[in-house]
Amino acid sequence: FFSLPVFVQLGLCVSRASASVLNLNCCLILLPMCRVLLAFLRGSQKVASKKTRRLLDKSKTFHVTCGVTICIFSVLHVAAHLVNTLNFSENYNEDFLALNAANYRGEVSQFSFFPGLTGVIMVLVLFLMCTASTYAIRVSNYDIFWYTHNLFFVFYMLLMLHVSGGVLKYQTNLEEHPPGCFNPNKTLRENMTVPKAFEESFPGYTTEPFAENLPVPEPFVQNNFMRICSEEPKFHSHFPETWFWISGPLCLYCMERLYRYIRSNKPVTITSVISHPSNVLEVRMMKDDFEARPGQYVILHCPRVSALESHPFTLTMCPTDTKATFGVHLKVVGDWTERFRDLLLLHANQDTEILPIFQQRRYPKLYVDGPFGSPFEESLNYEVSLCVAGGIGVTPFASILNTLLDGWKCYKLRRLYFIWVCRDIESFRWFADLLCMLHNKLWQENRPDYVNIQLYLSQTDGMQKIIGEKYQALNSRLLIGRPRWKLLFGEIAKCNRRKTIGVFCCGPNKISKILHKLSNSSNSYGTRFEYNKESFS
């Protein structure tokens, strides 16, 4: 290796180093996708501490970071191999034919090998996955993102085949044939040609002394050029290290997918479908042995809508000891949700529809995978929590409010600040009944300060109210405009001195960035804010 030119060594070093980085990231990128494992760790306080569970909230960021790293080092790996292709062609070795990647000097044949072919296909697959993962494509056409991202299985199969080419080799008989030894089976003159470095050190010296058995110069003997080899060199391909890196995580992911398939192969029973204002659909359903914690989400799959496509939705109602019903709220914003709504609603012109039992057979088959963990599960584990929702982002907090309606004394939470920002007044009607029932319950139990509700209407032409006399408790908490976040954080910190407050946000990125910045800023009251966020985009 060290006898090769410097630029050849550099190409090999870069290709090998980038390959090691790719092995590591191809191993780690699968771990955040093991949703069942993450849900188990998040829900087990004995296995994972609170700080560890907070690190699990960064699983999506970790997955994206690994993906970007794979893209960058794949480009570096390809560039290094392009250099290696030319170097192997120009530095063709006639003495050790087994080490040559080309068939003859001047042949550029790296891509004719199996590793080259699989490498080209992997680059194309990776390009499709990366371009379809951009935010613009995910928002405009989620189907493209979903289908191209599932090409990861093809990528991993090609990766395992890619490393089986055996281009790089090592010598297996170093004792019988040490590097630079003299082979007596060949003519002395052919095998004892003075190296170029020796000729430069001893100008004018020729190989004649060797042929005449004359004394060999002392430097030539000291450098072990006269060691005798007993056999020809033998080379063997390196065992691919990629198998060690990706076999474990890949098997773990495949076993989890199999477990999830078995767990979700039985369709749920849809009990009711309710159409809410602003294109929001509520689906209530039942499933045997289904258990979930507030803040978790499920993945819905309807074969009549799409044979392969499925989407995550946060649970807005969790099953309890007294009721087995659970539900989700979904906003109709794309092709999948539109087709799903049309299949569920028999009369699309009706605002609300709760179907009786004898019409259940008209519902399409719906499969539920989950539940899976999310950061919002921690909202009940703080003494004080601040929950901020933007529009349909209220869904994870709805399950928490439903849980508190059933009973709040068994949880650590003692004060909840709930802030909901919407563009139109009708959106508040999604959970207006729930908020009013919780408010009345806490008043009856002499705990009106347990939940602090603030509703903000960001866009309006004038003063509006939520229609209905039963919503008077919410009308008094309805504010026009956007929240003054800095002032709000100051008031919460003042009322909760020297306490740790969990901040949970589900909404636009603009609100999320503001809350994240304020959570990291210090205050004079010794109050600490811990920021949490969840996003499916």
The structural class is alpha/beta
Unreliable stretches: 187-192, 205-225, 347-361
Strand content: 15-25%
Count of structural domains:
3
Distance between the termini: 48 Å
Total helices: the number is 19
Calculate the mean pLDDT score and round it: 78
Largest sheet: 6 strands, antiparallel
Rg calculated over all Cα atoms: 34 Å
CA-based shape = elongated
How are the strands of the biggest sheet laid out side by side?
A: 3-4-7-6-5-8
Work out the helicity level. Answer: 40-55%
Tell me the total number of β-strands: 14
Keywords:
537 residues; six-stranded antiparallel sheet; superoxide-generating NAD(P)H oxidase activity; Rossmann fold; six-stranded parallel sheet; alpha/beta
